[in-house]
Design a protein that fits this description.
The protein is an alpha+beta fold and 195 residues long. The protein has 5 helices and 8 strands; from the N terminus they run αααββββααββββ.
């Protein structure tokens, strides 16, 4: 009887010590065969929300627009000091570079900047609302100040999941209401913005 107790105790000790070691060894061998989640996350591109957050962390203020161009996001920010800054955010590292910052925002620009800063819906909230209504990848976001007295809104360009034509989505800057203005092909030669 005493011998059975010793064997049971020895087996329990082996399992307690060997169990975590064996589990760690199994996890290590699995990691060697497939990339870990951390490595996969490190290789993922910075999305529009991440680019906006990185930009305002680097240059505190309000995002006016952002646009993905290859391996970088171009982000325009109106700083807390009223100055306009053009920033570049690397899509891989998240590093932010200031391309240009100035204080030449008088007259109409100053008025538009005040409306942008006062908007209830920020660029980041507009991105979230647009993606909730139309899942995909955001390619650009821009503040749309309707000069004809219409509602202020954000224009969000989304590449739908699974491909297809891009969607131009408008998000009301006061209510957050999402509407689709049109669906444009990437090869649209009638792009009025010249992009």
């Amino acid at each position: 009887m005493q011998r059975s107790t010793y064997i049971s105790t020895a087996a329990a000790v082996v399992l307690m010590v060997g169990g975590p070691v064996a589990a760690a060894a199994a996890a290590t061998s699995d990691a060697a065969r497939t990339p870990s989640a951390a490595m996969a996350a490190a290789r993922a591109d910075i999305d529009a929300t991440g680019a906006a957050e990185a930009a305002v962390k680097h240059y505190p203020g309000t995002v006016e627009s952002l646009d993905k161009d290859g391996a970088v996001w171009h982000v325009d920010v109106i700083g807390k000091n009223g100055k306009h800054a053009e920033l570049t955010v690397d899509t891989r590292s998240g590093k932010v570079f200031t391309e240009h910052a100035d204080g030449d925002d008088d007259g109409d620009n100053a008025k538009e900047n005040k409306q942008l800063i006062a908007a209830k819906v920020s660029a980041q909230k507009a991105i979230k609302a647009a993606l909730a209504a139309h899942p995909g990848q955001v390619r650009s976001v821009s503040w749309d100040d309707d000069d004809n007295g219409g509602a202020r809104s954000w224009e969000v360009e989304i590449q739908p999941k699974g491909g297809g034509d891009t969607k131009n989505v408008h998000v009301d800057a006061t209510t957050g209401k999402v509407t689709v203005s049109s669906s444009d092909s990437d090869n649209d030669e009638n792009d009025e913005n010249g992009d």
